């Protein structure tokens, strides 16, 4: 957790440094850097602790627009959930925390606005559910680098994922107003009784993980030392890459040359 906090702090400093570096430069360069900074923050919302607030603001704008609110909320919450889950290793604890933040952010926006509450609650449930299902699909590839203990834990998490999601939905419902509470509890009841896409994908991923677990059981001890800190390493690498991009953009802008800033942005797109 301390390392994660340090990574977030370093990324924030890098992003703020990029903004300060271009403060006195032409408006068009500043706009390009701001766009790059926003893009980086969007990719790292969970690391930066911005998941809930980002969703809340997006849903607020969707409500204000008044157009296709439920469908828009589904897209917002689905993308936010999937993106946040893919920032780190797939675990039951992360699923619960992220789903809670995403759904809470959405329903709070609607309840504070005093309108579209039912549609937002419906959209938030569906979006978070779909986002988790999409993240589950990528688990199989990631487990190829897991050690025995990680595989066993992931298998257990996958097998329990639907129940954990329903538990989180009811938790959000308890903190919400009457309309949201009724909608979320009804959806949780329906999901409990039927088979869902999430449940099917989780079963498939759990079976694949079980197979992988069996294959690695013989050399688990050897693999443990090699991959014990893999999750932290991956997160550090991704954060360094994001920070490097902001530094590249800032350096290009500091020189006062259009080419420097544009090349840095183009470089990110190619990567």
Q: What's the arrangement of secondary structure elements?
A:
Blueprint: H1 2-21, H2 27-43, H3 51-65, H4 69-85, H5 92-113, H6 117-137, H7 139-142, H8 148-174, H9 178-193, H10 197-216, H11 220-227, H12 230-254, H13 258-270
Helix pairs in contact: 1-12, 2-12, 2-13, 3-4, 3-5, 4-5, 4-6, 5-6, 5-8, 6-9, 6-10, 8-9, 8-10, 12-13
Structure write-up:
It is a single chain. The chain has 271 residues and is mainly α. It has two domains: 1-44 and 231-271, no CATH class; 51-228, no CATH class. The protein has helices spanning 2-21, 27-43, 51-65, 69-85, 92-113, 117-137, 139-142, 148-174, 178-193, 197-216, 220-227, 230-254, 258-270. The longest helix is centred in the middle third of the chain and has 27 residues, at 148-174. The two termini are 29 Å apart.
Short description:
The chain is mainly alpha-helical and 271 residues long.
Task: Kindly estimate the percentage of residues that lie in beta strands according to DSSP.
Answer: under 5%
**The number of domains:** 2
Unreliable stretches (pLDDT < 50, length at least 5) are 1-5, 40-48, 253-258
Distance between the first and last residues' Cα: 29 Å
């Amino acid at each position: 957790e301390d390392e994660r906090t340090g990574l977030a702090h370093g990324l924030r400093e890098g992003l703020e440094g990029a903004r300060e570096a271009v403060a006195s430069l032409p408006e068009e360069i500043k706009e390009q850097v701001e766009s790059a900074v926003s893009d980086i923050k969007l990719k790292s919302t969970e690391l930066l602790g911005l998941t809930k607030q980002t969703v809340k603001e997006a849903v607020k704008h969707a409500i204000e627009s008044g157009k296709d609110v439920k469908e828009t909320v589904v897209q917002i919450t689905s993308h936010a959930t999937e993106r946040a889950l893919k920032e780190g290793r797939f675990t039951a604890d992360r699923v619960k925390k992220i789903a809670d933040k995403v759904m809470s952010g959405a329903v709070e926006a609607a309840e504070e606005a005093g309108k579209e509450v039912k549609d937002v609650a419906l959209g938030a449930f569906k979006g978070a559910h779909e986002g988790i299902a999409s993240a589950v699909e990528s688990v199989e590839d990631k487990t190829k680098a897991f050690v025995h203990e990680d595989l066993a834990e992931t298998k257990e998490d996958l097998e329990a994922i639907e129940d954990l999601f329903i538990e989180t939905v009811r938790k959000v419902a308890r903190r919400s107003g009457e309309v949201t509470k009724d909608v979320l509890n009804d959806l949780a009841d329906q999901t409990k009784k039927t088979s869902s896409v999430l449940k099917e994908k989780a079963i498939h991923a759990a079976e694949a993980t079980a197979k992988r677990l069996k294959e690695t059981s013989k050399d688990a001890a050897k693999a443990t030392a090699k991959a014990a800190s893999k999750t932290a390493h991956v997160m550090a690498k991704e954060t360094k890459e994001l920070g490097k991009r902001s530094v590249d953009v800032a350096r290009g802008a500091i020189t006062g040359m259009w080419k420097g800033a544009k090349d840095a942005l183009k470089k990110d797109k190619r990567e």
